[in-house]
């Protein structure tokens, strides 16, 4: 199972394997309190693409399309496969910092991972 959660929300044993998927460390979060297993920067959208992740429908559609292209690169496939294996055996929680819970990279990455399950 794959779950998306803001890193600012308290961790829970139900979170399972917690992975931060943002390129930058979230402000105000102490590493020891984040309770993450991994910080996978290479799955975060490129800096240019991050700016497109808005609630505006046309930009959001373009963000999704381009982020999916970034996630289809051969160099990230082993990481995606490993995360799918984790999700098959338990809960995988994708952590992100953005306030918008519907328009962020975790939502798109969750869809990509679930398509391969």
Which short descriptors sum up this protein?
four-stranded parallel β-sheet
Structure description:
With 117 residues, the chain is an alpha/beta fold. The protein has one domain. It has five helices and four strands. A four-stranded parallel beta sheet has the order 1-4-2-3. Strand 2, helix 1 and strand 3 form a beta-alpha-beta unit. Helix 3 crosses helix 5. It is globular and about 35 Å long. The mean pLDDT is 91.
Q: How would you sum up the major sheet?
A: 4 strands, parallel
- Compute the number of structural domains: 1
Strand order of the largest sheet: 1-4-2-3
Proportion of residues in extended strands:
5-15%
Global outline: globular
Question: What is the average per-residue confidence, as pLDDT, rounded to a whole number?
Answer: 91
* End-to-end Cα distance: 9 Å
Q: Which class do the helix and strand fractions yield?
A: alpha/beta
Number of helices: 5
Are there runs of 5+ residues with pLDDT below 50, and where?
none
Write the layout of secondary structure elements.
Blueprint: E1 2-6, E2 17-20, H1 31-34, E3 38-39, H2 47-50, H3 57-71, H4 77-89, E4 92-96, H5 105-115
């Amino acid at each position: 199972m794959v779950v998306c959660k803001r890193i600012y929300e308290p961790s829970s044993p139900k979170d399972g394997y917690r992975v931060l998927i943002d390129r930058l460390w979230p402000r105000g979060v102490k590493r020891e309190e984040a309770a993450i297993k991994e910080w996978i920067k290479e799955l975060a959208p490129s800096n240019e693409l991050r700016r497109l992740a808005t609630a505006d429908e046309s930009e959001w559609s373009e963000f999704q399309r381009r982020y999916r292209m970034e996630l289809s690169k051969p160099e990230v496939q082993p990481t995606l496969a490993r995360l799918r294996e984790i999700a098959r055996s338990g809960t995988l929680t994708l952590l992100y910092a953005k306030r918008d819970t519907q328009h962020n990279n975790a939502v798109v990455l969750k869809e990509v991972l679930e398509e391969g399950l």
